Amino acid sequence: MDAGLIPASLCECPVVENRQVGAYRQVSFVAPEIAALAQPGQFMMVRLAGESLDPLLPRPMGVHDVDSDLVKMLVDPVGKGTVALAGAAVGDRLSVLGPLGNGFDLEGGGPAVLVAGGMGAAPLTMLAGALLTRGREVSCLLGFRTRSQTLAAELFQEADIEVLTEDGSAGRQGLACDPLPGLLDGQPGRTKPEIFACGPAAMLAEVARIARQQGVRAQVSVAAHMACGIGSCQGCVVKGSASYLKVCTEGPVFDAKDLEWK
Amino acid sequence: MDAGLIPASLCECPVVENRQVGAYRQVSFVAPEIAALAQPGQFMMVRLAGESLDPLLPRPMGVHDVDSDLVKMLVDPVGKGTVALAGAAVGDRLSVLGPLGNGFDLEGGGPAVLVAGGMGAAPLTMLAGALLTRGREVSCLLGFRTRSQTLAAELFQEADIEVLTEDGSAGRQGLACDPLPGLLDGQPGRTKPEIFACGPAAMLAEVARIARQQGVRAQVSVAAHMACGIGSCQGCVVKGSASYLKVCTEGPVFDAKDLEWK
Amino acid sequence: MEVNLKTRLGPVELRHPVINASGTFDALSADLVLEADLFDRFPFSAYIPKTVTLRPREGNKPPRLYETAAGLLNSIGLANGGIDAFIKDDLPRLARLPVPVIVSVAGESTDDYGDCAGLLEAHPEVAAIELNVSCPNIELGGRSLGLDPKRTHRAVSLARSATSKFLIVKLTPNVTDIVEIAAAAADAGADCISLINTVHGMVLDHWSLKPVLGHITGGLSGPAIKPVAIRAVFLVSQALDGLPVIGMGGITTGQNALEFLAAGAAAVAVGTANFRNPLAAADIVSELGGLMQERGIGSVEELTGLAQK
Amino acid sequence: MEVNLKTRLGPVELRHPVINASGTFDALSADLVLEADLFDRFPFSAYIPKTVTLRPREGNKPPRLYETAAGLLNSIGLANGGIDAFIKDDLPRLARLPVPVIVSVAGESTDDYGDCAGLLEAHPEVAAIELNVSCPNIELGGRSLGLDPKRTHRAVSLARSATSKFLIVKLTPNVTDIVEIAAAAADAGADCISLINTVHGMVLDHWSLKPVLGHITGGLSGPAIKPVAIRAVFLVSQALDGLPVIGMGGITTGQNALEFLAAGAAAVAVGTANFRNPLAAADIVSELGGLMQERGIGSVEELTGLAQK
Ligand SMILES: Cc1cc2nc3c(=O)[nH]c(=O)nc-3n(C[C@H](O)[C@H](O)[C@H](O)COP(=O)(O)OP(=O)(O)OC[C@H]3O[C@@H](n4cnc5c(N)ncnc54)[C@H](O)[C@@H]3O)c2cc1C
Ligand SMILES: Cc1cc2nc3c(=O)[nH]c(=O)nc-3n(C[C@H](O)[C@H](O)[C@H](O)COP(=O)(O)OP(=O)(O)OC[C@H]3O[C@@H](n4cnc5c(N)ncnc54)[C@H](O)[C@@H]3O)c2cc1C
Ligand SMILES: Cc1cc2nc3c(=O)[nH]c(=O)nc-3n(C[C@H](O)[C@H](O)[C@H](O)COP(=O)(O)O)c2cc1C
Ligand SMILES: Cc1cc2nc3c(=O)[nH]c(=O)nc-3n(C[C@H](O)[C@H](O)[C@H](O)COP(=O)(O)O)c2cc1C
Ligand code: FES
Ligand code: FES
Predict the structure, then answer these.
(1) Do C63 and B224 touch (CB under 8 A)?
(2) Residue B59 structural domain
(3) What Rg do the C-alpha atoms of chain D give, in angstroms?
(4) Which residues of B fall within a CB distance of 8 Å from A52?
(5) Largest CB tally within 10 Å, which of A219, B216, C3, C72?
(6) How many domains does chain C have?
(7) What does the mean pLDDT of chain C come to?
(8) Residues B90, B122: one domain?
(9) Same domain, yes or no, for B40 and B61?
(10) Residue D192 bears catalytic tag
(11) How confident is the model at residue B7 (pLDDT cuts 50, 70, 90)?
(12) Domain assignment present for A201
């Protein structure tokens, strides 16, 4: 998880599609520079191009998928900025800075378990693809609040998937982490899997706890409010084991053991 | 020019057309209540419906024309608020409060001279129609900066029109007021015309001067920054001969003799 | 769950916590311009007319308004007909309102505060008095009185001696330490603190590059100043525990009102948002009720000060 | 017409009037993340790194940021590695920049200002020093030093005795009378006043209704505060005739920069707008040139203070 040495660029990108996927909007836009460079787990700073000062700043959005010149993001409209992005119409222009952040480290070997909570599934589609390409075995645990929130399993076509919902309305009832200990132990003679996780803070803390307990490596993608996305403002920090770490340039993916967990 | 006793209403109005007219945008929207009540010279407080706080407030816009359920405004995009209104797309919704203000007093008799500078022509279309319906003779002096700014003469179909431009690129060279003294005197035995004027402050001051000199009545529609449009904020005042007058409720049309002119 | 929106400012009972900010809603003018039944479906739970002064004031030279990013700059300058005309002409008409009337007064000298309060004392239609010690657009020797704790103390003391009515003091945020000023007002006998008046500001004309406002500088209101207002409400209500606070500054939604109440206000006032929509307060009240329900907050009393706990 | 965009801050010559606001652009980090030639086409005419303090500071507890209406609230808390590390690690790398470097320092005690200025004195790469007496996010006995004219005077005097470099003092707008503070700084030997640092504010979380920021309160920046900043620049540059002012607060366009210069600034700084677009300053500079041309204003000198004439 080195600071990316690939230069990020700022582009004005026309929106070519905006469709509903589960409870989210999947927005596709033309961004050849970003499409060429983006790695799983990287993100972009995105806003509607134009003069309006409300919303004022771009929002961090994971690279959900790349399809030749197109970049796709999956937007969960939780507040002012994401509502504006989710409403981008075909033909609208986005101001996009990216790709940013380190992305996941794919160099490890052995099987991979991907754990996602809610929108955390967004960046994992690309990751699953990249891991499969490298010949790694991939299983996914996808947790959601309820059926209407679940992300279509088609997002993870070739991987082995288990969907969980808190209310049991789809897949198994429970949280994304529930099956994790079972997947990690009980496989004598096999390399222990590496964990890749993205989701709410509480889920990541649980992933970190399980990983430590089982002695496996966990790469976690964490969220933070961001202003700049390029290391200028020091606004996006999380507590590392020694000092504060900038999520935008030192993350958003961290080795769980390098962070402080409450 | 009594304070309107007709109740104004606040409506969300879908835009059905937005077309270029001269250098301006003519935006038509569905507003049956306003269409039914609006009088020449009245205005509306208009903004794009929605949550964005920039622009924050509605802008005063004259009622340009009414066509059964439709109301039309003519927008000169001079700043943030008018640029947003000029960009309203078909299907967008406007938040509209109106009709507001007193409008022109149509009760006088005799011929009428309408004097407009630039966008000041917008409210005079309806006025010309109303005066013609009342059997009054109408001549219009329309002044513009240059040819590209002139408002299509079709806006004033049945009236007698003279177009002037400052650079002579269309119609006669000069200012809207230049021919006014000639129209007022030199007609022995006839009732002196009444003046109706709308346009920049300097033009209105000149109209007031000529009217005083020639002893004719001039009704002038004045502009002011407005916040509320309904007499709440006291922000829109102009200096009357005795005290400050609120443009939104005591105007926007005043008898020129009731205002203080520098 | 039943949500109880009632609140009270001392003896003044309010059927919900949303009143208007002085100078931003003229009920008499709006009643003429808007639908005929405005007084019956009045959106505010109490009505505060624009600040009145002892003598009539014509107000500042126009232009008096300019929109800024998510804000509004104004320099009205307390244009009003004077307290005598107010008592004679407006008060009887306002008595028809279905809600309590709170009268806002400002002094052109410190003594005026006592005189104004004294003149209102005899009128039962006046439910409470708000002392505006904070208008940025009139100057007493160059500085508004609410910038100084001693002068604030004196103005409030004079009014306190002249009236037994519920006494609200409205403060300016343009000070180094607003808690110090609030404490001075409380010490002088204020029953309630109103926060905030507008923030000092100025704009230049795009083209001429000269100040837009006739008065050169003005007061900033609207969503732009909401964080400044939330902080003031939080700090003052925390420091003066027990004294009710009326919170305002940029409230445009029920969510905003919820936040001011959580910050420590017992009631909130809507100002600039009235210019976006003259009946905005009705929406704000119903949104507020819905949001309290969603969060399981049963009453305004329970909500007030939640952010401090 | 040729427009001359050059300006100067005392001995420091700037090729145009747009510099960055401290804490809003990290040239070393941006150089890693953005295109490889950032240093060659550096958008600012001088570079100010984030404020450094005598000892390292880890900064405030997150969350440290929240967007408000046309504004940004932050409580970074002067996170920095300390002045020794800055001089050793950063300064040599910054010397590669094609523009002068102005170093911003803040004290955790009044004496620190003198010590920091003294440590920078020996380094020719430092073109000027900015004393940040105005950070709202670190507290010296609860109050930032720039809130008080006497303490400001003392801090500036200490720095003045320690350095002969061009000395800029950056003030907070969160005071009753900013001209009084500016005069104290000038009297103590400041060569230039920088205006404004952020405005005190606070936000509550939509859902939990608790303060969002780990530090509870923070500083508001961005277009929302532009009217506050324009007023401060206008009043201070009028009062301290002759002392150059660096204006900032919400500048996002060339038009905005034009207005700050007209209000009285000799140079302007771009802060929050860098977060909308890290190369915003390049657009601002070219827009500014175009607008000056349109208005027939031939030089920054001619433009500075136009609003006051
Ligand atoms: C590296 C990274 C990648 C992301 N990828 C995606 C993505 O692919 N799709 C997506 O929909 N969202 C993604 N997010 C989250 C998204 O950026 C936030 O939801 C967004 O910034 C919220 O802005 P808003 O104006 O809509 O909400 P606000 O009104 O600012 O806030 C609404 C609520 O969300 C919380 N919130 C705001 N910003 C953040 C944040 N950055 N992280 C966590 N909570 C926040 C607030 O505290 C509040 O409770 C990502 C965040 C990061 C840091
Ligand atoms: C009764 C009335 C009727 C009007 N009818 C129309 C109409 O039919 N079509 C139309 O295009 N415009 C009309 N206007 C003018 C229009 O309201 C202003 O141009 C608009 O408010 C400017 O807002 P803005 O945000 O676009 O510009 P801003 O950015 O606010 O200002 C741009 C420039 O316009 C000036 N300006 C701003 N507001 C006003 C104002 N109210 N009057 C004069 N100058 C102003 C500013 O000083 C500045 O120089 C009318 C105004 C009034 C009072
Ligand atoms: C146009 C206007 C006029 C105002 N007049 C007064 C006034 O007369 N007395 C007063 O106490 N406050 C006055 N204020 C301040 C408001 O009451 C309120 O404190 C401030 O605007 C902040 O609230 P808001 O952001 O909701 O508008 C006025 C504000 C505006 C915008
Ligand atoms: C995230 C952030 C960090 C800041 N850090 C500093 C700082 O370290 N030193 C300082 O003097 N000002 C700091 N400021 C204030 C800015 O330099 C500037 O004075 C203020 O933001 C107003 O300008 P703007 O509206 O253009 O951002 C910071 C502002 C922001 C938003
Ligand atoms: S978002 Fe600015 S440093 Fe990370
Ligand atoms: S616009 Fe508010 S009183 Fe006229």
Answers:
(1) yes
(2) 3-100
(3) 18
(4) 52, 54
(5) C72
(6) 1
(7) 94
(8) no
(9) yes
(10) no
(11) confident
(12) yes
- Domain assignment present for residue A242? The answer is no
Q: Considering chain A, what percentage of its residues have pLDDT values greater than 90?
A: 66
Q: Is residue B92 domain-shared with residue B127, that is, in the same domain?
A: no
D242 within a domain of the structure (yes/no): yes
Ligand 3 centroid–CA C222 distance in Å is 9
What is the distance between the alpha carbons of residues B240 and B223, in angstroms, rounded to a whole number? 14
- D231–C201: do the CB atoms touch at under 8 Å? yes
Closest CB to D279: pick one of A10, A231, A243. A10
Q: How confident is the model at residue B6 (pLDDT cuts 50, 70, 90)?
A: low
User: Do the domain assignments include residue D71?
Assistant: no
**pLDDT value of residue C234:** 98
For residues A96 and A121, state if they share a domain: no
Picking from B98, B242, B97, B225, the residue whose alpha carbon sits closest to that of residue C76 is B225
C-alpha–C-alpha distance, residues B261 and B204, integer Å: 9
The predicted structure's pLDDT at residue D140: 53
Among residues A41, A188, A55, A5, the alpha carbon closest in space to that of A126 is found at: A41
Is A145 buried (19+), middle (13-18) or exposed (0-12) by CB count in 10 A?
A: middle
In a domain, B235, yes or no: no
User: What's the CATH code of the domain at D286?
Assistant: 3.20.20.70
Residue B185, in any domain of the structure? yes
Burial of A107 per CB tally in 10 Å (0-12, 13-18, 19+) = exposed
Substitution target from C67, C204, C253 for chain D, most D beta carbons within 10 A:
C204
User: Residue A218: its pLDDT value, please?
Assistant: 95
Spatial distance between the Cα atoms of C305 and C259, rounded to a whole number of angstroms: 9
| Total count of domains within chain A | 2
Shared-domain flag, residues B80 and B138: no
**Domain for residue C168, yes or no?**
yes
What is the percent of chain B where pLDDT is above 70?
95
> Which CATH number characterizes residue B123's domain?
3.40.50.80
Answer whether residue A82 shows pLDDT above 60.
yes
Q: What is the 3-state secondary structure (H, E, C) of chain A?
A: CCCCCCCCEEEEEEEEEEEEECCEEEEEEECHHHHHHCCCCCEEEEEECCCCCCCCCCEEEECCEEECCEEEEEECCCCHHHHHHHCCCCCCEEEEEEEECCCCCCCCCCCEEEEEEHHHHCCHHHHHHHHHHCCCCEEEEEEECCHHHCCCHHHHCCCEEEEEECCCCCCEECCCCCCHHHHHCCCCCCCCCEEEEECCHHHHHHHHHHHHHHCCCEEEECCCCCCCCCCCCCCCEEEECCCEEECCCCCCEEEHHHECCC
Which pTM does this prediction carry? 0.95
The reply to whether B136 and B202 lie within a common domain is yes
The boundaries of the domain holding residue D303 are: 7-57+78-200+222-308
Are the CB atoms for A71 and A4 separated by under 8 Å? no
- Among residues D265, D106, D259, D239, the alpha carbon closest in space to that of D178 is found at D239
Residue A116 has pLDDT above 90, yes or no: yes
Kindly state whether residues A74 and A116 are assigned to the same domain.
no
Kindly report the length of chain B. Answer: 262
What is the bridge-based pairing of β-strands B70-75 and B24-30? antiparallel
pLDDT at B2: 41
Residues of A in contact with B80 (CB under 8 A): 51
Q: What pLDDT digit, counting tens, does each position of B163-172 carry? A: 888 898 888 8
Task: With CA atoms as reference, report the closest residue to D7 among D248, D307, D249, D246.
Answer: D246
Residue ranges in chain D whose pLDDT is less than 70:
135-143
- Is C141 part of a structural domain of the chain? yes
pLDDT in tens, B57-110: 999 999 999 999 999 999 999 999 999 999 999 999 999 999 999 999 998 888
| Domain harbouring A87, CATH code | 2.40.30.10
Of B55, B74, B100, the residue at which a domain comes to its end is B100
Task: Based on the fold, state whether residues A120 and A96 are members of the same structural domain.
Answer: no
Q: Please tell me which residue in D135, D224, D232, D284 is annotated as part of the active site.
A: D135
